[in-house]
Write a structure and sequence with these properties.
Radius of gyration: 12 Å
Number of helices: 1
Strand content: 35-45%
Distance between the termini: 13 Å
Number of strands: 4
Order of helices and strands: EEEHE
Largest sheet: 4 strands, antiparallel
Length: about 70
């Protein structure tokens, strides 16, 4: 089992949106964590978010476990 990090925005209704790659160098939000950009370390995710978002600060990094055996 591996641990990955994703960039998350929590909505007022309690749902989460995950940052995913868009067209070119842009990013978009999705409700599906599987579509999100997965980072190997928290540091890597934070550095990406800090460089990507200039004024938006309402994001956080969340860890999750992924077991490849469940998808084989």
């Amino acid at each position: 089992m591996d641990v990955f990090e994703v960039i998350v925005m929590k909505l007022k209704n309690g749902r989460k949106m995950y940052l995913k790659a868009g067209i070119g160098e842009s990013c978009e939000w999705t409700l599906d964590r599987d579509e999100a950009i997965w980072f190997e370390t928290e540091k890597e995710a934070k550095e990406f978010a800090q460089s990507y978002f200039k004024n938006f600060k309402d994001w956080l990094v969340e860890s999750f476990f992924f077991n490849i055996q469940e998808y084989v």
